[in-house]
Amino acid sequence: MLSQPISDDRALSQSLYQALIERFRDALPLSNQSQLLTCSFGFAPSPTGVKTFFIVTPSLLAAEKLLLDIDQIVERVQTLMIGVGQVALCIQPQNNPVETPSSSSVCHPSATFHPEYMMCKIFPVNSPIPCLED
After folding, report:
1. What is the dihedral of CA 71, 27, 8, 10, to 10 degrees?
2. pLDDT per residue over 14-69, tens digit each?
3. The pTM is what?
4. Is-contact 63 30, C-beta < 8 A?
5. Cα distance between residue 49 and residue 90, in whole Å
6. Burial code of 79-91, b = ≥16 C-beta within 10 A, e = fewer?
């Protein structure tokens, strides 16, 4: 007789990823921890299939502060998130950008955010190759 699952796969995955993100955040210096509290996180494959860890900041200033310690952030991802091949540090402003003469054709007079205004910078995670001789 097969046992019934306690919860569905999605709830289990969400719980696992939440714990992983909390451990990631707790392992960084306090200055980064406070910056990361304003961020959103996610995992998704790149167009080429590389598993990517997304850190989405609410402003350019927050992204610049995290960028100062990007080596340490990538190192923590490498240590805690086996299989993740890159980190994407993204900016998704809370409000639409101010319309300028050169951008008037792409700005939308809407209260919602449009994804074309998101910016990301990708950082590779150089995972060490496990030694099979040990």
Report:
1. -30
2. 888 888 899 999 988 888 888 899 899 989 998 899 999 999 998 889 999 999 99
3. 0.72
4. no
5. 19
6. eebeebbbbbbbb
